[in-house]
Amino acid sequence: MRIPISDVTPECGRAEIAGWVHEVRDLGGLTFLLIRDRTGIIQVTIVKKKAPAEVLEAVKAVSRESVVRVAGTVKAIDKAPGGRELNPETFAIVSVAESPLPLDVVEKVPADLDTRLDARFLDVRKPRVAAVFKVRSTVTSATYDFLSQRGFFNIATPKVVAAATEGGTELFPIAYFEKEAFLNQSPQLYKQMMMAAGFEKVFEVGPIFRAEEHNTVRHLNEATSIDVEVSFADHNDVMVLLEDLVRHLYAAVDERCSDAIADLGVEFEVPKTPFPRLPYAEAIEIAAARIDEPIAYGDDLGTVSEKAIGEEMGEHYFITDWPTEIKPYYAMPYEDDPAICKAFDMMHPRMELSSGAQRVHQHDLLVEQIAAKGLNPDGFEFYLKPFRYGMPPHAGWGMGMERLIMTMLGLQNIREAVLFPRDRHRVVP
Amino acid sequence: MRIPISDVTPECGRAEIAGWVHEVRDLGGLTFLLIRDRTGIIQVTIVKKKAPAEVLEAVKAVSRESVVRVAGTVKAIDKAPGGRELNPETFAIVSVAESPLPLDVVEKVPADLDTRLDARFLDVRKPRVAAVFKVRSTVTSATYDFLSQRGFFNIATPKVVAAATEGGTELFPIAYFEKEAFLNQSPQLYKQMMMAAGFEKVFEVGPIFRAEEHNTVRHLNEATSIDVEVSFADHNDVMVLLEDLVRHLYAAVDERCSDAIADLGVEFEVPKTPFPRLPYAEAIEIAAARIDEPIAYGDDLGTVSEKAIGEEMGEHYFITDWPTEIKPYYAMPYEDDPAICKAFDMMHPRMELSSGAQRVHQHDLLVEQIAAKGLNPDGFEFYLKPFRYGMPPHAGWGMGMERLIMTMLGLQNIREAVLFPRDRHRVVP
């Protein structure tokens, strides 16, 4: 019976493992192999004078990154990884790796990102790269845990849709039988409809698709979004929920992924809540004082401004009270000052992680705001109809999974947070 | 502070609730309203002589399915739902519902499925319909729990892909910038690549897309798939995993969704494991003996055959040892009889719920099997490459979420297990 390499200790006496040949060192009378599985690395030591002939033959033939199955006795030894080594009685090559490898798994030769992504199956064998996806898996599971325990239902909304969330731009068209359809940019309209449906607290973790033409280190054309919507709640309620979730996710990673964090060599600190709230008007003043470009109230915040504000604010803060004009039609204007709305962005010094708002729940105001954006309300009838039959007040947000992972782990390029990224030029593998 | 209706008891003394007006009965001196939120229903009783004038006015004006907020004193009363009623001191209409409603929420008037789906936000307000999605949410969360606890990583694989999993049919094409791309039919090839990546145990719960032309009660064009892949495992190992998961999911629903099960009025029993294993050759004999159509070894099993075999086998069983010729190229043939392969289907008497297999992990055999299906291996290079650099033996399966929910709850049409179904004719809402 094969056991995980991390479970192999001198106390085992005998053990059988299976994994990938990480390194081979032939010192003449002795051969050392490092064998890797997803739990760790073990040294396999072959003393040529003592080892069975079949073992010697297999070890001689084996190439790096081949899959092998090894059984033998475990011995405590100080100098080996994990303080133990395996002396094989049997050594079987399960699956041969061709040489040379298209990518160096031990990272002696650095590779550029495109080469890495072309051979992603080899790239993620590197413990430092696999660590990112262990963290991402933990973050996803912990999101389900946290929201389920707070009474949220998870929902699955359609990815094939007939209408754009925010107008006709940035959509990928699909040939859907005789009809025109698109890949959904966001579950926004659908999660709002579930508020009319009386579900009250919903979340979804799923793919979103944006046909953005720019190719940057912070954008993907296919991404994963964590979406939340809550009835009888306002923007302040869902900001608290969001900061609680972010703190919980960091804490879950801190607790369950210490090995991955060590492999990544990052400084990791669970953020403290509450995160600061910075009104948009003040954010603009900070930016104006710090950057050379002209910036004025009413402007959107570009990369340079975000960076400047981030330098002053530190990690994780909210920008609140945005001008109604520069936020989507579904953001609720303040009753006493409709030029400002109950929208917020959650920022990391490096970028925006999440956008949210209390939503407009009044049908006529919503129609007005859709028209004010230059969109035709007729195209939104499927979405507007629920607002005429008992739509409760509600609020929510969407958070980009990859940006969360990227900022959490200090990754330089958002593509490093995706197994098989999709961008302007890449749909393979 | 609003509390959930299910938490309102006579011991509360005073309570504030918010929800939808489920029914209004005016008996002259008395008006009874039933108010519904996602946790339950409460009777609100207004004695006209005693109630404040503002309350009387609001109650007179309110329409069914409007959203209201009510505060008052709670009294024990035998005849009311939950043994208590609320006597309002304040009664505010939060959001008005137009009359007439496009759909009757109390189900006095039955509606056909198309009408229900057109007004899905009203349809799912029915406790019996909402119950389906409470169960589905529980099943999804419990899948994450179960697989995470067994050491599985969840992964997110791309939905926009350049190649078809099983050849060029049944694909939705996307206009992806200058490139040709498709919506993915299945994470099959990607989860197998993650085996080459050394992740060993992965799962994904996500959307799949099939451009099937037929419009039946068992098919969707966008569905949710639970996908699992395990390294160093064979078909028998992953059949045990699958039956354990199914039993666990039924048990989770049994434990956490008793209200929903009661609303649905279904008989619910947690299936016993192990599920029977029925070799394909025997399945064909059962079908041949029971149905009028001619059927012979080598034929695929149609609806009529599946039903006939199901009558003999009962709920949940595996059909194993399929002819290699009628299973996909990635199914592993038996070493001693390559005409039969290590593929299985998990059946419910009504339909196939899951397909799986030990996979071919040998590069050259895989190329041979792809060619044998009349496909060109050159189109699969991104997938084949990992098989040349240390691919471990592996096995896995995919299970349709909607079919699982449909059979679990005795639903007649698979569309009832989806909030916003996508079929041959429907992309709205």
Query: What is the name of the CATH topology of the largest domain in chain A?
Result: BirA Bifunctional Protein, domain 2
Count of structural domains of chain A: 2
The name of the CATH architecture of the largest domain in chain A is 2-Layer Sandwich
Give the integer mean of the pLDDT values of chain A: 96
What structural class is derived from the secondary structure elements of chain A?
Answer: alpha+beta
Largest sheet of chain A: 9 strands, mixed
Please count the helical segments of chain A: 12
Q: Could you tell me how far the N terminus lies from the C terminus of chain A, measured between alpha carbons in angstroms?
A: 34 Å
Summarize the amount of helix of chain A as a percent range.
25-40%
Question: What is the quaternary state of this protein?
Answer: homodimer
Low-confidence stretches of chain A: none
Largest interface: A-B, 92 and 92 residues
What would a concise description of this structure say?
In chain A, 29% of the residues lie in helices and 28% in strands.
